[in-house]
């Protein structure tokens, strides 16, 4: 420890804010590091009760962008940086890759297991690695380990702000109790922020995203717990913002469904029209995994944030279609375009001319649902570049589609050691952050990287913060400074 502020002795525990994958990875690794240190322990605060705690991590399938348990694709760093248009720091992604093998060893040593599992991206044909039990499986693995290691969990406690002494040294976290709202200060020698993004705070969404944020559907109940206090408290303490603050991870869902992640990932096999009965994008411009996020955002920008996926009996040729439809609500069925328009509440004439114009533009050719087949339209705007079949064979069927918000892209700037960086680019002493509350994404989300980075940088944060706590104890501080 070189900085005198960091080496100064202090009392208090290591406080982790949030118990999703990033928070639990931090808590367990910190507790392992602090084992045998007298009077130092790890406290996790979470605004949810113990059954709901875990934020988005509780609801995710947790697909991981890995070739194998210990391996990323050769192009992983370049790909992730390219998704952001070069704005995600490669040093962060390289650190993720460097720490992958030991993190996977570590989490498996605590009981996590992984398998290869097909995704809902039915025309990419690329199974992804997934923890058994998804994100909830990881939480159910790590939480008992944390408890066995003596980590204390304070549920229904919302972290509000950081506390500093007169010299600017971080000394604690103010938390408010659920229900009574009473505040208390938990003394802290170091803090790991792992409280997710601000996807659960309508006011901040409206302020940061622009557009009609109230038309976004939370992808799962976990979203609503993440209101951005962790990010705000760090910024108030001098932290630098990073990531795309008006960006978010979007998915197309069925707004009629109350299921979590009620995805409609089959939009290339028909047409998408808006409330006016008009097509607004090339539904077949790429595979589902390449286009689902931009499709969801395009739906959000339509009147009322609403669209309708319309197809016909030929959809049955897409034999894996059910893997791409996660809503349990049945499609709207109709014998004619006019009937369908009535059922969906769309302008009948306009829908009829949209479908007729589209059908006329479809070129003949072989249809192959498993891969981009080049079966396209000619002479209409927007075109359809693949999988263009005419919508003509009853029964017609339709799913309403809306844009769901999964998480926000804006967050805190951190270095590869998970230390929160200040406006001057230097680490803020004793403050760490990991997971969704750290901002790395811009533009397009590189799927399968969130849980991975939560786990890897959560563990790095826990270890780093624990080392700071150890060096901050009076006797150890003397050892470290040599005084
Ligand atoms: C339906 C769904 C599907 C997804 N699919 C994938 C996928 O396949 N692959 C992938 O990599 N990612 C996926 N994601 C994203 C991924 O799940 C998240 O990015 C990741 O789990 C976030 O982990 P985290 O620990 O940073 O935050 P979270 O898991 O959201 O945890 C944050 C925790 O902080 C608590 N909290 C918030 N504010 C406070 C406060 N002020 N005080 C105290 N506690 C607070 C919350 O209650 C929560 O427990 C998906 C997400 C969802 C919802």
Q: What does this entry look like structurally?
A:
This protein is an alpha/beta fold. It folds into 2 domains: 4-247 and 409-481, FAD/NAD(P)-binding domain, CATH 3.50.50.60; 250-404, Flavocytochrome C3, Chain A, domain 1 (Alpha-Beta Complex). It has helices at 4-7, 21-34, 76-83, 90-109, 134-148, 202-209, 229-236, 288-300, 337-344, 348-361, 450-472, 474-481; strands at 13-17, 42-46, 114-117, 128-131, 152-155, 157-164, 170-177, 183-193, 217-218, 241-242, 248-253, 271-274, 307-311, 332-334, 396-408, 411-412, 419-421, 427-433. Strands 1, 2, 5, 6, 7, 8, 17 and 18 form an 8-stranded mixed β-sheet that branches. Strands 9, 11, 12, 13, 14 and 15 form a 6-stranded mixed β-sheet that branches. The protein has a two-stranded antiparallel sheet with strand order 3-4. Strand 6 and strand 7 form a beta hairpin. Helix 9 packs across helix 10 (348-361). It is elongated and about 80 Å long. The structure holds flavin-adenine dinucleotide. Flavin-adenine dinucleotide is lined by residues 17-23, 45-48, 53-57, 59-63, 135, 158-159, 194-196, 219-220, 222, 225-227, 229-230, 260-261, 406-407, 435-436, 448-452, 454.
């Amino acid at each position: 420890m070189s900085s005198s502020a960091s080496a100064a002795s202090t009392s208090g525990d290591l406080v982790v804010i949030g118990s999703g994958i990033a928070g639990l990875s931090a808590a367990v690794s910190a507790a392992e590091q602090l084992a045998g240190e007298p009077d130092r322990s790890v406290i996790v605060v979470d605004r949810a009760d113990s059954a709901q705690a875990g934020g988005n991590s509780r609801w995710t399938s947790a697909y991981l962008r890995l070739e194998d348990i210990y391996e990323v694709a050769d192009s992983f760093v370049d790909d992730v940086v390219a998704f952001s248009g070069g704005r995600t720091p490669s040093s962060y992604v390289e650190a993720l890759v460097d720490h992958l093998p030991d993190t996977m060893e570590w989490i498996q040593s605590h009981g996590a297991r992984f398998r290869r599992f097909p995704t809902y991206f039915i025309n990419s044909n690329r199974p992804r690695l997934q923890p058994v039990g998804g994100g909830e499986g990881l939480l159910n693995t790590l939480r008992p380990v944390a408890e066995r290691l003596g980590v204390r969990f304070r549920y229904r406690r919302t972290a509000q702000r950081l506390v500093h002494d007169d010299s600017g040294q971080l000394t604690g976290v103010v938390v408010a109790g659920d229900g009574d709202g009473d505040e208390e200060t938990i003394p802290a020698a170091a803090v790991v922020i792992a409280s997710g993004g601000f996807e659960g705070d309508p006011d901040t969404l409206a302020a940061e995203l622009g557009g009609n944020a109230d038309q976004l559907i939370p992808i799962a109940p976990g979203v609503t717990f993440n209101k951005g206090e962790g990010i705000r408290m760090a910024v108030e303490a001098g932290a630098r913002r990073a990531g795309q603050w008006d960006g978010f991870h979007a998915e197309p869902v069925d707004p009629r469904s109350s299921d979590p992640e009620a995805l409609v990932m089959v939009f290339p096999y028909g047409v998408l029209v808006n409330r006016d009965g008009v097509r607004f994008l090339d539904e077949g411009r790429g595979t589902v995994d390449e286009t689902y996020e931009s499709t969801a955002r395009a739906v959000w920008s339509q009147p009322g944030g609403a669209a309708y996926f319309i197809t016909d009996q030929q959809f049955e040729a897409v034999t894996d279609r059910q893997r791409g439809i996660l809503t349990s609500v049945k499609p709207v069925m109709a014998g004619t375009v006019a009937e369908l328009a009535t059922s969906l509440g769309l302008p009948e004439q306009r829908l009829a001319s949209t479908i007729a114009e589209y059908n006329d533009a479809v070129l003949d050719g072989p249809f192959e649902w498993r891969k981009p087949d080049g079966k396209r339209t000619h002479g209409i705007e927007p075109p359809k570049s693949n999988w263009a079949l005419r919508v003509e064979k009853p029964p017609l069927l339709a799913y309403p589609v809306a844009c769901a918000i999964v998480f926000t892209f804006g967050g805190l700037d951190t270095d590869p050691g998970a230390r929160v960086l200040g406006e001057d680019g230097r680490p803020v002493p004793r403050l760490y952050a990991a997971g969704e509350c750290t901002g790395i994404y811009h533009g397009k989300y590189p799927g399968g990287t969130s849980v991975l980075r939560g786990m890897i940088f959560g563990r790095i944060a826990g270890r780093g913060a624990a080392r700071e706590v150890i060096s901050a104890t009076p006797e150890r501080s003397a050892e470290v400074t040599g005084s």
